[in-house]
């Protein structure tokens, strides 16, 4: 299933849902001023609200969808965004399609479990090494643009030092202890 989102400036509206993208594209093709362009191998869809009448109706499978030029700023295009969504009413014995936000990063749903487990395992490896070397360890910056990070300080010291973000590159590190040693040498 796909949701049709109309986006302009900071305003977005989930308008309707379709069983397939093909059905959705057949619907938006009926919007006056609808345009489909290809930019850098990506399809970009939009319409200019100047082409909309004061009020109109698009009938699709017997459903009447009202549109009005007064719903949009006529000076800017309205972007058409397709968002895939899983229908949980249908039986399915696998991870749903799509992606999940993990801290500041988006991970494909079929990789989330392995990603989170690897991220936490690597964090605990770094934490255990640092604590064994006489440091206090904490997690900080959760929700920031670059995501959560490991910070550390010598026991009894008040000044915290940044070690690294818990990002996808951190998850790929094979020798966590060697990485921590090298990062600490760079800092000190």
Order of helices and strands: EEHEEEEEEEHEEEHH
Major sheet details: 5 strands, antiparallel
Tally of alpha and pi helices: 4
Structural class: alpha+beta
**Helicity level, as a percent range?**
10-25%
Poorly predicted regions are none
Oligomer: single chain
Separation, N- and C-terminal Cα atoms:
53 Å
Q: Give the strand tally.
A: 12
Identify the strand order in the major beta sheet: 2-1-7-4-3
Principal-axis shape: elongated
Task: Provide structural commentary.
It is a single chain. Helices cover 24% and strands 37% of the residues. It is elongated, with a radius of gyration of 24 Å. It has helices at residues 21-28, 112-132, 168-171, 176-187, and strands spanning 2-8, 11-18, 34-39, 42-47, 56-60, 63-67, 78-84, 99-102, 105-108, 135-140, 149-154, 161-165. The protein is α+β, with helices and mostly antiparallel strands and 188 residues long. The mean pLDDT is 94.
Summarize the structure.
With 188 residues, the protein is of the alpha+beta class. It has four helices and twelve strands; from the N terminus they run ββαβββββββαβββαα.
Write the layout of secondary structure elements.
Blueprint lengths: L1 E7 L2 E8 L2 H8 L5 E6 L2 E6 L8 E5 L2 E5 L10 E7 L14 E4 L2 E4 L3 H21 L2 E6 L8 E6 L6 E5 L2 H4 L4 H12 L1
Antiparallel strand pairs: 1-2, 1-7, 3-4, 4-7, 5-6, 8-9, 10-11, 11-12
